[in-house]
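Box 3.1 A note on notation
Throughout this textbook, protein chains are presented in two layers. The first layer is the amino acid sequence; the second is a token string describing backbone geometry. Keep the layers aligned when reading.
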Amino acid sequence: TKSEVECLVKLFDALVAESRNRFAAVGFDCNMFRDVLYRMFGMMDDVMMDRVFRTFDRDNNGCISAEEWVGGLEVFLRGTLEERIKYCFEVYDLNGDGYITKDEMFQMLKNSLLIHPSEEDPDEGIKDLVDIALKKMDYDHDGKLSIVDFEKAVRDENLLLEAFGPCLPDIK
């Protein structure tokens, strides 16, 4: 709504005012954005926060503008399932080539899973998870996930939306 957008813009202005970075005249940088994700949404994974920053920073200038802030939060907080699928896919597609590869899945899972010290090699367990995810989600069996594969998998099982790490706020 108009009043919600106005509140988001006021929040943006307050955050920019409190930041002391080189982008303060136009927005805030990745470090300030990570601080916001941590304080407001409890995100702690640095890699995931950087990926979320990249999805908000639509013009890739290293700075979140007021327009990018409102547009990003619109999907982040209130997006439709279709918008959230596209957003999560963008977060997980590390190199932006339109596919989530086994290596990208491995990197995301390695960063987001809590590894407990044990005799087993944790990378082996992660590789097993990647294989399971591919078996479940790779509908065209090409060894990687396209947006079509990802969307079909999520529509079949909503829990797969954040299969490779938490990149959306929780219900709170």
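Strands lie at 99-100, 145-146. The chain has two domains: 1-78, 80-171.
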